[in-house]
Ornithine cyclodeaminase
Amino acid sequence: MRLVNKQEILAQIDECAALAEIEEAFRTFARGEAQVAPVTHLAFPKADGECHIKCAHLGDDEVFTVKLATGFYGNQELGLSSSNGFMAVVSAATGMPLAILLDEGALTDLRTALAGVIAVRVGARRGSTTLGVIGTGIQSRLQAMLICRQLGFSRVVVWGRSPDKVSAVVEDLKAEMSDVSVSQADTVEALCAISEVIVTTTASREAIVKSPAVRPGTHIVAMGADSPGKQELEPALFSKASHVVVDSLDQCTEHGETANALKTGDISRSRLTLLGEVLLEGGLDRAEEDITIVDLTGVAVQDAAIARSVWRKLKQAELQNH
């Protein structure tokens, strides 16, 4: 079994190729050609932390993936990353562990951000250029950078509970994207008023984005509610939405943003569309004034796709060196 460190892993990453592979993984999932185990959640409230364990096998791939990911949101105060973890690549023929990818959460961060890119591309109005990002952690930065880089957005507005942390995000994004206008919103309402696309990336346990603040035509990608008890959107938003897309029906209705709206009666399961199905159909059939929502809880097929990609490139590099 091979232990692969973060530096080796990142050297194998091709962002555009990873994006295409994760898209295909969502399609495979929608076609019913993937095995996905129920997510295991552990909560550590005293440390403001959590652990998720996810595993999946895509089609008849030669390998499957088991992923452990942690999010400890007080780590920023300690000068540590809020996310960590590793992925195990296991033979689907023998059950033998082939590699442990010690990515320290980097692959999870990347596959999460790439899912955001996919969710924006399939659902936002054509010609959208202004992105609102709610949150100040790793995903707020990655979502902004990847959406702008992959989809050509030219303006980013950021809001978070801590003005100092928002300022830090804004400065980081300005340094990374000199051709993009990046600014700070004083309130969530101000962000909603100017954003064509809103991405929420927090670990909030109460609604941040309220229904009256969201203008017609807005596309919302909700990423934060990935375990029980989390919430970023007011449930009433779901009753206003013309389309609600979920990455996993089981996960989103059990612990995603959609679960909150189901409890209040603002959405029914029959109105939900799987992200992979939208990809198979070529995108959402939306009107200009429609409010649309994509609920992303993070599906193990994303982990399987990105881990498989790294494993195959490592094997290829090994063959070339011999």
